[in-house]
């Protein structure tokens, strides 16, 4: 109900991002979550699809594990449900490493949506050459698949892994060093 109101009041820009938030709650509830690193450790977890201004365009309350598993990961399912009204419109979705995967990038690409996000090094289908590459600070190593998915590794203070269906390995000058445009755009959108 409230989602319909959000979507009628605002037409999002080309870029949107996923986020999760915790509504503080210490009472009894079957799907109450405990997340150690959050400011409010106990509460109700809400997945949100937001625009750059912070406006919540769509949201999904996490109600616990589902009994049926149809081969789709929880993260993929959350993203596809949040993006349902924005697919096939040429938008770009920015996600953090919990959501980002090569499989999700392929699913979104077939629906006319770009994906840009940080990537966990231990995800299935990651190109091993990129993950295991040894780099010095400021160096970039990347691979691009036939279907347009770029996975890159950039060495800053630590290794940064990115996946993008929108960017290649183009860089921009940040001070005295080169930084991939994918990372620069990600940081600008998620801040």
| Annotation field: number of helices | 5
**What is the helix content?**
10-25%
How many DSSP E strands? 11
Give the number of domains: 1
> What distance separates the N and C termini?
29 Å
Principal-axis shape equals: globular
The biggest sheet, with number of strands, parallel, antiparallel or mixed sense and barrel status, is: 9 strands, mixed
| Structural class determined from secondary elements | alpha+beta
- The topology string of helices and strands comes to HEEEEHEHEHEEEEEH
Low-confidence stretches: none
Radius of gyration: 18 Å
Mean pLDDT reading: 88
Q: What proportion of the residues form beta strands (DSSP E)? A: 25-35%
Overview of this structure, please?
The chain has one domain. It has 191 residues and is α+β, with helices and mostly antiparallel strands. The protein contains five helices and eleven strands; from the N terminus they run αββββαβαβαβββββα. Strand 7 and strand 8 form a beta hairpin. Strands 1, 2, 3, 4, 5, 6, 7, 8 and 9 form a nine-stranded mixed sheet that branches. A two-stranded antiparallel ribbon has the order 10-11. The relative contact order is 0.13. This is PiggyBac transposable element-derived protein domain-containing protein. InterPro entries: PGBD (IPR029526).
């Amino acid at each position: 109900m409230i989602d319909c109101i959000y979507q009628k009041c605002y037409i999002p820009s080309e870029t949107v991002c996923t986020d999760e938030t915790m509504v503080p709650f210490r009472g009894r509830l079957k799907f109450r979550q405990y997340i150690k690193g959050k400011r409010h450790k106990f509460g109700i977890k809400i997945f949100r699809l937001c625009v750059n201004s912070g406006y919540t365009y769509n949201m999904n309350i996490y109600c616990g594990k589902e009994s049926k598993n149809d081969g789709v990961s929880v993260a993929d399912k959350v993203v596809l449900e949040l993006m349902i009204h924005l697919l096939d419109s040429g938008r770009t979705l920015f996600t953090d490493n919990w959501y980002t995967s090569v499989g999700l990038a392929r699913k979104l690409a077939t629906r006319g949506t770009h994906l840009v996000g940080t990537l966990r090094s231990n995800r299935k289908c990651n190109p091993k050459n990129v993950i295991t590459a040894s780099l010095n600070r400021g160096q970039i190593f990347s691979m691009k698949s036939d279907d347009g998915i770029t996975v890159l590794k950039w060495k800053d203070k630590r290794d940064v892994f990115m996946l993008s269906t929108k960017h290649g390995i183009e860089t921009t000058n940040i001070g005295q060093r080169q930084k991939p445009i994918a990372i620069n755009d990600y940081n600008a959108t998620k801040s």
